[in-house]
Each structure stands twice: as C-alpha cells, then as structure tokens.
Amino acid sequence: MIKPYYKDKWVTIYNGDCREILPELEVTDVIITDPIWPNTTIKLAGSERPYSLFREFCSRIPKTTKRLIIQLGCDSDPRFLRTIPSWLPYLRSCSLEYTIPSYKGNVLNTGDFAFVFGQAPQWQKDRQLMPGICRSNYVEKLFQKHNFTHHIHERRAPAAKEVIDSLPHPCTRRLQHLYWLVHFFSDIQVVDPFMGSGTTLIAAKYLNRKAIGIEIEEKYCGLAVKRLSQEVFDLGL
Question: Are 210 and 186 in contact, with CB atoms under 8 Å apart?
C-alpha cells in the first residue's frame, strides 16, 4: 500500500516516481499532465532524458484510463507524443493561448497546446461540444515573473534565469487553462502524474472532481499542499 504525502476529501498527493506509483492507482477517468518537455532548458528531475522518461510513463498508463491530455509548449516537437499507446486514439488538440505573449529567444510564445487522446467526455448540458481554444488573461500573483519593481517585459527586467530562480516553481501552468481542460474533458476524476506545483489539482478541486497528483520532488508537494489549503482559489475568473 502506497502511503499518501497528503490527503483530503477531494485530493490525494503522492511524493515519488510516477512510473512506480501510477500502475498501483485506480484511474477511472482522465490523466491531465505536463511532462518534462523535450526542449526544456529548466533543470527538473528527468530533464536530462525527457524522451525515455515519457516512453516509460506511457507504458505504465492503466488501461482503465478513459482520456489522456498532454500539455506541450508551442515550440515543443509533437513527435514527442509518438509513444502514447494505440488504445488511446487521438481525439483533438486545443490551443491554450496567452492574452499577453512572452518570448523565448526569437520565438514569440503565444501559449501552449493540449493534445487529447482517448474517449470523448460524457455529454453535459454546459459542454455539448468540445471546444479547441482557451485564452488566459491572468497569471497568479505567486507565479508572476517579476523581480522587485521591474517586470520581466520591461526594459530594465532582470535576466530570464534570475526571474525563473525567484519563482516557487520554474514552469507552472496557467490555472485558467487547467480549469478549462478539467471542465471540458473530465467527468469525475483527474490524475496528474507530473504534478509540479499542483495547478491541475486546484482546478479539479474547484470543479468538484476527485484528484490524484504524483510529484517526485518533495518541495513541490509541499508547495501544492500550501496552495490547496487556500479557502479561495486565485483563479482570475
């Protein structure tokens, strides 16, 4: 029996390797996750071997999983997804846009993409169709990329590495995007095997879905628990 790092009425968090923990879980609905990207420049556990890590993760996805959603950056090679098992057929891709883009080198970073595989979600009155675009106009205060009074987009902004190092997690996803994905593509449960700071779990809890997160770095498990303890979530909705 795997002992949870944290558990409440809606959320369970495990601190460990998803390749070991995921096969032991009862996954009844959707996996929504943001694995180590193939072109990442940020040092996280597994960043030195993203392809093999993702392949091993895919081989351990429980066959009770109805849908799998993988989030990648706009400059990430989608061929990274070729190891997703054939029993999870491609369903659609979704554009997760930023109202205010940033940039990486000479690439204008206008948002991310979510690739959806598996069964279509159940019909509900407020989601008869599966949309393909979500635009985020808000960044949680905890993860705004600024240093003292100088915003990252201003002329006197600090170096990118300095900004990233000052964040509680270096590559968190937008809560508005995850709220949208959870609403349209989950029914009762959400599992995130690369949990990071817990953004997927917060969106799931807000929408009354059961949620399970797995994170290999304990400090980020602690950060997720702290964020989940908020009585009012900082959604910007």
Answer: no
Name residue, tokens 């009425």.
9
DSSP SS3 for 116: strand
- Average pLDDT (37-60) is 85
CA distance 96 to 177: 6
Mean pLDDT (the chain) is 86
Structural fold of domain 6-228:
Rossmann fold (3.40.50)
Give me the residue spans of the domains in the chain. Answer: 6-228
Helix (H, G, I), strand (E, B) or coil at 58: helix
Please give the DSSP secondary-structure letter assigned to residue 71: E
Helical segments of 6-143, H only: 18-21, 50-58
Residue 63, both tokens: 């066959």
Is the distance from CB of 147 to CB of 158 less than 8 angstroms?
Answer: yes
Cα atoms in the 13 Å half-sphere on the side-chain side of 25: 29
Q: Mapping DSSP to helix (H, G, I), strand (E, B) and coil, where does residue 165 land?
A: helix
What sign has the CA pseudo-torsion 100, 105, 108, 111? negative
The pTM score is 0.85
The identity of residue 170, as a single letter, is: P
Distance between CA atoms of residues 32 and 46, nearest Å: 19
Cα(39)–Cα(107) distance, integer angstroms: 13
Per-residue pLDDT averaged across 16-30, rounded?
96
